[in-house]
Write a structure and sequence with these properties.
By secondary structure, the chain is an alpha/beta fold. Helix content is about 50%, strand content about 20%. It contains 21 helices and 22 strands. The protein has an eight-stranded mixed β-barrel with strand order 13-14-16-17-18-19-20-21, surrounded by five helices. Helix 11 (about 310-330) crosses helix 12 and helix 13 (about 380-400) packs parallel to helix 14. It is elongated and about 130 Å long.
């Protein structure tokens, strides 16, 4: 029921107004002056107030001011009902915040009309206010459950959805798959091209995942460059693997952002309910562990969780802790794998490959500790140790009159961040070891050069000015644009061992290898084949114009002293 407060000092008029309003169905309160009226208004909060102006103790103006200053009563519709007819009085009343002004004498119709108009306006304003509150609440609810940049569900909504999906899977006796996805080396993009481009790239990645929502129930951005995907009706492991590979392929296609062509890869970890675990935190931990395994073992791949990963994770932490000390204790060794000319059959150079002589575990291969160095940020220190060692060895061989040709050293993608000052670092090592730059070759993978092609071209051009040669390692395994290749100041392409392994039996691998050879010679570049293990492979490469090769057919990687002896003997 609508409550109206009547503040009028003339008792007969007050009673008449109250009776009239009561007859029309209003709940009516009365006050004989402003002081009492203010107290009643604060206590009962009426829907509307009718007030005289000329009253003892507190007049109508004072009453209105008091009510408007009180938060609880500030919005109550207020109508002056007075014998004061001067325009100045009316203007003052409206300036103080009155909603209407009726002069005595007045008719019942005028009174009810004013009341109806004020209540309708107040109710409309209140409804609008409530609508705004509801909209604000809905907006807050959305923002609290969605990522502001990509508009994907965030960690909060993901946890809620995963809990619900697990419950439904239990009830319906079905399997559920959880996938965690991480963008490989995304910090390099932010550091080299800026956060604005990185943010735009995130939006495009999210858009691709949104378009590929089926068969996923949800795609969420968990934090940073991590995403999560839920499949509530996972039929079998084979179908989940297929979907994971489709996502890897989808995200690896080039992005065109602010005039840059950007390439990325990603790593995916997969866990399955109820086989692995049956609660939220455990499944998330499993998926993250599998994801980090995929990232640490080559990237651009997926891994399904297994209990053995927990053991491997402990081993990883142990290696990470030991690697810090290994660098300081000079436990990192450099081996050299000969590179041979296919025309002369002579050694023309070597690739430097790191080995870790662990005091307890023995000789550790690079595929075990290089990913650890990458993840822990030790790769730059490790590379510095290796390059100093190689250049010092080159100077020693030169001073001894030993012709070693050239030595190739691998670079991490982290060297191609502006803050690493790669050029200054290479200059410093060459100068301090008194090494001739034209005998040094730096190798970087196809994926590295395409992370930020424009910036990489600048760095490689500066390396060329120094006199250092550059090779693209593992060529053919990435997603580089051949139209870009001609712009890179490089000297050598290295055919990845995956194409060499079946080059004499697999027509597809043979055609890829021949295409790389033809492409390189048309630019013109030299070609080195990696992983040659049979005479048939070597002969195929020789017959088809490949320039050089390395592999176990000729020699495995050797300690510096054994490689030196091989050079002296002229093998």
């Amino acid at each position: 029921m609508t409550t109206i407060l009547v503040i009028e000092d003339v008792e007969a008029l007050r009673e008449e107004i109250m009776e009239t309003l009561s007859y029309e169905g209003f709940d009516v309160l009365g006050a004989e002056n402003g002081l009492i009226g203010v107290q009643i208004a604060k206590t009962y909060l009426p829907n509307l107030i009718i007030c005289d102006i000329a009253m003892p103790e507190l007049d109508g103006y004072g009453t209105l001011i008091a009510l408007r200053q009180e938060p609880k009563t500030s919005m109550i519709p207020f109508i002056f009902l007075t014998a004061m007819t001067e325009k100045a009085d009316m203007r003052q009343a409206m300036q103080l915040g009155a909603d209407d002004y009726l002069t005595k004498p007045f008719t019942s119709a005028e009174l009810f009309g004013a009341i109806a108009a004020r209540l309708q306006k107040f109710n409309s304003a209140r409804e609008h206010y409530y609508d705004e509150i509801k909209a604000a609440g809905e907006k807050y609810e959305y923002l609290s459950h969605h990522d502001g940049l990509t508009q994907l569900p965030n960690r909060v909504l993901f946890y809620e959805s995963l809990s619900k999906a697990i419950l439904e899977a239990k009830v319906n006796n079905k399997s559920l798959a959880l996938l965690f996805l991480d963008i490989d080396n995304f910090h390099i993009i932010n550091n080299t091209l800026g956060n604005d481009l990185g943010d735009q790239l995130f939006k495009e990645i999210a858009d691709r995942l949104k378009l590929y929502i089926a068969p996923f129930d949800m795609v969420a951005r968990i934090q940073g460059d991590e995403f999560a995907l839920i499949i509530s009706d996972a039929k079998d492991t084979a179908s989940i693997k297929l979907e994971a590979q489709k996502i890897l392929d989808l995200l690896s296609r080039p992005y065109h952002v602010y005039g840059h062509e950007v390439f990325i890869t990603s790593s995916i970890g997969i866990t399955i309910f109820p086989e692995d675990l049956q609660e939220v935190e455990g499944l998330i931990k499993n998926a993250e562990l599998a994801m980090y395994y995929a990232k640490n073992h080559g990237r651009n791949s997926y891994k399904i969780y297994s209990p053995e990963l927990n053991v491997q994770s402990s081993e990883y932490m142990a290696l990470a802790n030991s690697l810090h000390r290994a660098i300081d204790r000079k436990e990192i060794l450099v081996f050299y794998q000969p590179i041979v000319s296919l025309q002369s059959g002579q050694i023309v150079g070597a690739e430097a490959l790191a080995r870790w002589q662990h005091p307890d575990l023995g000789l550790i291969m690079p595929n075990k500790f290089i990913p650890v160095a990458e993840q822990t940020g030790l790769i730059l220190r490790l590379s510095e140790v290796i390059l100093y060692s190689v250049c010092s060895q080159m100077r020693s061989w030169r001073e001894s009159g030993i012709n070693y040709g050239f030595i190739a050293v691998n670079l991490s993608g982290q060297h191609f961040r502006p803050d690493t000052n790669l050029i200054e670092f290479v200059r410093k090592v060459l100068q301090e070891t008194n090494t001739e730059p034209d005998h040094l070759e730096l190798e970087l993978t196809e994926g590295i050069i395409m992370q930020n092609a424009e910036y990489t071209i600048q760095v490689l051009s500066q390396l060329r000015e120094i006199g250092v040669k550059v090779a693209i390692d593992d060529f053919g395994t990435g997603y580089s644009s051949l139209s870009y290749l001609k712009h890179f100041p490089i000297n050598i392409l290295k055919i990845d061992r995956c194409f060499i392994q079946d080059i004499t039996t697999d027509h597809h691998d043979a055609m890829i290898s021949l295409s790389i050879i033809d492409l390189a010679h048309s630019l013109p570049l030299k070609v080195i084949a990696e992983g040659v293990e049979t005479v048939e492979q070597m002969q195929f490469l020789k017959d088809n114009g490949c320039d050089k090769f390395q592999g176990y057919l000729f020699s495995p990687p050797l300690p510096a002293t054994e490689f030196e002896q091989m050079l002296i003997e002229g093998k």
